Structure to design on (353 residues):
């Protein structure tokens, strides 16, 4: 925000870093989704997705917990293979 | 009938005992009848913070186990005739007390006081459970650090699960220069993260170290910023409408500008 801050200090302010880290940690604490359970969820999710969308890359699915404005979010990113412009 | 207010935090070392001593004293300065209970069995500390360590004869466990009557165990403050301390036992552990004991104890005390403040041990186990058992209200103390805020969030959940009503928040040791430089979470940010109502912000203030060394409480010191903050917290707890001290961005751009060169804008 501040002109001077941006001018002299390119690094993100530590308070902002702290806030973002806390928001992530707290969502995980609150939801009590263990890394193990999250892996299970990903495995099942990719199996389901693969049945409907063959282009999905099961290994690349990412599931993240996010803190939203009014609700926390479980977000799944499912990259799709491009059939034509792929290298 | 007394309001029983437990002061807790999750993380240790954030200022629960200092807060209990100062808040209790500030409430008594307003003319209220106040008892402060040290519920940290085995790690007694409220007595030394209040400078009453030489007067202890009986403690909380003595009262619970019937070796002493409440009246014998309560220690009158050095200055305020309506302020009393019930010290923790030092040679016992927290298993010596149950939540039912604490409920019975606070109920027994209710008619003699306006406020009963319970200084909780750190943690989320037996000692914490005991400390909140008799409470009608809970104040959570945190500092603007990731570890303390994370633990505070855990405590919020436990207090809500125990049906103690929504806990309120005291943010201790705010360093306004660091906040202004964006290197410390501000009051607003901590409140936003924890989503509970704040009752006060206490600046990081060396007068607390000095007064604690002497066994005095900061609220007696006219020059202590932290002491003034605790007096304001007492007023809010008593139901007065006192605006929160903004220890944040007020000096704004100028302070940030001078902050860059290591100087203080005042």
């Amino acid at each position: 925000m501040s002109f001077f801050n941006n001018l002299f200090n390119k690094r993100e302010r530590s308070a902002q870093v702290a806030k973002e880290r806390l928001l992530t940690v707290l969502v995980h604490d609150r939801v009590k989704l263990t890394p193990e359970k999250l892996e299970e969820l990903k495995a099942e999710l990719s199996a389901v997705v693969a049945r409907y969308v063959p282009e999905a890359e099961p290994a690349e699915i990412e599931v993240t917990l996010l803190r939203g404005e009014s609700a926390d979010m479980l977000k799944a990113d499912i990259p799709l293979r491009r059939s034509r412009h792929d290298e | 009938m007394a309001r029983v207010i437990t002061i807790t935090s999750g993380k240790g070392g954030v200022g629960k005992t200092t807060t209990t001593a100062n808040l209790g004293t500030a409430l008594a300065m307003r003319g209220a009848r106040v008892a402060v209970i040290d519920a940290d069995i085995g790690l007694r500390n409220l007595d030394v913070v209040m400078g009453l360590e030489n007067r202890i004869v009986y403690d909380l466990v003595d009262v619970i186990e019937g070796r002493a009557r409440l009246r014998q165990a309560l220690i009158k403050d050095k200055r305020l005739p309506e302020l009393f301390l019930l010290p923790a036992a030092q040679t016992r552990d927290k298993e010596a007390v149950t939540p039912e004991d604490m409920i019975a104890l606070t109920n027994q005390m209710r008619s003699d006081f306006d406020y009963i403040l319970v200084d909780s041990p750190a943690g989320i186990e037996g000692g914490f459970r005991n400390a909140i058992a008799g409470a009608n209200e809970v104040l959570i103390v945190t500092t603007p650090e990731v570890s303390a805020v994370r633990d505070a969030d855990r405590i919020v959940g436990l207090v809500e699960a125990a049906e103690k009503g929504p806990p309120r928040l005291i943010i201790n040791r705010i360093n306004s220069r660091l906040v202004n430089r964006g290197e410390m979470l501000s009051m607003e940010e901590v409140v936003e993260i924890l989503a509970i109502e704040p009752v006060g912000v206490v600046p990081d203030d060396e007068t607390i170290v000095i007064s604690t060394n002497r066994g005095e409480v900061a609220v007696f010191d006219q020059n202590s910023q932290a002491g003034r903050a605790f007096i304001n917290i007492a007023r809010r707890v008593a139901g007065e409408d006192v605006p929160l001290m903004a220890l944040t961005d007020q000096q704004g751009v100028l302070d940030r500008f001078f902050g860059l060169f290591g100087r203080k804008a005042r």
Summary: Residues 248-266 of chain B have pLDDT under 50 and may be disordered.
